[in-house]
Amino acid sequence: MRRFKIPLGVTIFAAIWLLVLLVPPLRESFGVWRAVQNQFFLHRAGAEEWEARFPNDPRLEAAALRDNFVSSESEAAKRVLLQFDALSRRFPRENWIRADRLRASTSKAMRMETEMSASPPPNGASRSTYQWLSDAAIRLALAHAVEGRKREPDNAFFPWMEAVFHFALRENDAALAALARAGKCPRWNDYATDEARRRLAIYSLEKDLLWEEKVALGSAQLFSHLAPMREASRAATWQGIKAMRRGDHHRALQIFEAVMSASRPLQASGGSFIVVLVGESLERSLWKRVAKESGVPLPKVQTGLPLRSQPQYHLQLAQTFATYARRHGREDVAAQALAGARQSDATLLSSLIGTDEKGGFAASLAASMGVSERTFRIAVQGAGLGAKIGFCALIAATIWIAGALWGRFFVNREAPTRGQIARCASFSFWASAIYFAVLPSLGANDELGIWDPWSSQSNVSWAASKGFFIWFVVFLWLAPVALTTWQRGRGRRNFAAAPSEPRNLRLLATRAALWGAAGTLLFCIFLDTVSQPPLLQGTGLEWPFSGIVLVVALSAALGFEWQRARPRNQGAPMRGAAPVLVAPRVENWLFAARLARRSAGALAVAGSVLYLVVAISIWPPRARLNAVFEHRLQVGEVAAMREQLALQRQTTRG
User: Are 141 and 165 in contact (CB under 8 A)?
Assistant: First the structure.
């Protein structure tokens, strides 16, 4: 009995995908592809299932309340606030529940007495006085803020919330006193980043999260409480301006000092960068308004640059304010303003996240995370590319297996030779590789630099659409099969089984050298076109020089294959010979089907090997991105950025 022998290609294909199934990092590409497609990604089990699995877990209940609050109308949202109150009574030691409740309470309109509200509206229009919470509801929120301050007397967030609610109740003196208390607190924690950490922990209970999913959750922080804080700062500044106009400069400077002091904990926060920016803007808005009231000309703003990137402008504003403070005997307040302007690091921090016209958002995000753009693009763009290669390999394998099962029911009159299979598979593989490499240079990129042929949302929609890609791949697979079958029909008289071509080491070496040179140059072009700035810039392989050499190498390789594919003198041509697509014969169609199936098998094996190479290549940079994100989440965005700045300064000195 003849012993059954498993083909080598089947063994390689099965071994690769078994390894991919057993090692989760090797199949991350498919998850990244889904994430890029926005089909993602995060699916949390139902509330009842979570309650059964994790009973009495305040994290889950608070997350559900927050979700309901965001998606609710005003009346339903007010009921959610009452549910927050009940949750806080059940877990009185969890001060973060009060913070979540306070941030939710300040997420809608909070009307206060400011300079704008005191002035008559233009054209006699009526000004809105809508307050989404009643006075009783505001006092209930105020009680939560007071309780939170008692439990964390060093956290400026809670007295800031007291000031917001007092101003909303028109209790201006109490609000100013709360701002003074906030200015004496050494730290700021609004628990927004903690909420992001809790959400990550909740979703991680169900599955291991991708880096893209972690970033999406970590970035989904709501800072709605910062808007009423800005309004409260304007309300306090208005009280100081009114004191200036009365001639009570002592009281005005007391108020201005309270506003400046209350902004300092935000500026020193190690949490979110937006908190630092808001803290500085509160102080600078105060200086600007006082300078305007004093009649001092404002410094000029450089056009085309954000204010946070103009330290000289901020220093001049502080100097105008310091002049006013010294004029009325408050040298300490003047020194406080000047010190705040000089110690600002918002400009330096902004340099880490500033967008670049060439690099775009991808370069900005990579810089803000403290990784090189090359690492970022390999980790993210390489994952998307790997998914597409993997899908192509699996589709080819499906055709391969289906064709093998179908072929069991037909007589194998003539099997394609090894050379015919290699020619068809080589053409399909390299033509697809050229498509993958060239398309990014046409501009088919999204903000992360991940061109996506499975989506029509692209700058080159005709070349990157899902339909075009599928039909293009089918064409690349069938075109060489049809050409080879047509050539066979013209050059052969009979259909006797052709023997497999003998192995020729010189022939194999020549083919490997030609296609290896073409593949190396193609890979260089791919790196050069997807990287901004180009990775090969200034080298001899830079596009378009490498493109010219690639055309020469491909021409040599294809010419070699064509020379080998020329029909030999094997007898008289077939009677009535015609291209197979014009006068099809059953034998030719069967041969074409076998050749298509075998070439699909070769493509499945080659694509699987290439997918494994890509998956292993992106593993280290993705691990690096995950480590950076976890560190940023633990220490805070601003703290991580300050560490990055310190490291850059050390490197510069070294």
Answer: yes
Do the Cβ atoms of 181 and 160 come closer than 8 Å?
Answer: no
Tokens at 276, concatenated: 């630092």
Closest C-alpha to 163, from 86, 94, 266: 266
d(CA 222, CA 220): 6
> Within the chain, how many helices (H) and strands (E) appear?
27, 0
4 Cβ contact partners less than 8 Å away, ≥ 6 residues apart: none
* Alpha-carbon torsion angle 72, 222, 256, 321, nearest 10: -130
Six token digits for residue 273: 């960068």
Omega cis (within 30) before 584: no
- Alpha carbons within 13 A on the beta-carbon side of 600: 22
Residue 73, Cα to own-chain centre: how many angstroms?
30
Strand partners, 360: 356
CA distance 535 to 532: 7
Spell out the residues 6+ positions from residue 434 whose beta carbon is closer than 8 angstroms to its own.
522
Calpha distance 164→146 (Å, rounded): 12
Identify the CA nearest to 418 among candidates 349, 508, 299: 508
Q: Residue 149: left (phi > 0), alpha (psi -120 to 50), or beta?
A: alpha
384's tokens: 């998307």
In this structure, the number of other CB atoms found within 10 A of the CB of residue 573 comes to 13
Of all residues in the chain, the percent with pLDDT exceeding 70 is 68
pTM given for the model: 0.71
CB 80 within 8 A of CB 104: yes
- Each residue of 346-368: pLDDT tens digit? 555 665 555 444 455 566 677 76
Q: What is the 3-state secondary structure of 379-404?
A: HHHHHHHHHHHHHHHHHHHHHHHHHH
194-212 pLDDT tens trace = 888 888 887 787 777 888 8
Q: CA nearest 49: which of 157, 205, 197?
A: 205
Instruction: Quote the crossing angle between the two packed helices 192-204 and 586-635, to the nearest 10°.
Output: 140
CA distance 182 to 157: 7
User: In this structure, which amino acid lies at residue 359?
Assistant: G
For residue 214, give Cα distances in angstroms to 40, 340, 617: 12, 35, 21
Give the rounded distance of the alpha carbon of 387 from its chain centre: 17
Q: What is the pLDDT of residues 69-100, one digit of tens each?
A: 766 677 888 888 888 999 999 999 899 999 99
The C-alpha atoms of residue 515 and residue 524 are separated, in whole angstroms, by 14
Whether the CB-CB separation of 233 and 260 falls below 8 Å is answered with no
Helix axes 28-36, 586-635, angle to 10 degrees: 80
Phi, psi of 451 (to 5 degrees): -70, 145
Of the candidates 234, 227, 289, the residue with the CA atom closest to the CA atom of residue 115: 234
**Cβ atoms of residues 233 and 285 within 8 Å:** yes
Q: Which two tokens stand for residue 587?
A: 């034998």
Query: Closest Cα to residue 153, out of 173, 192, 181?
Result: 181
Three-state DSSP class for 96? helix
Residues 6+ apart with CB under 8 A from 38: none
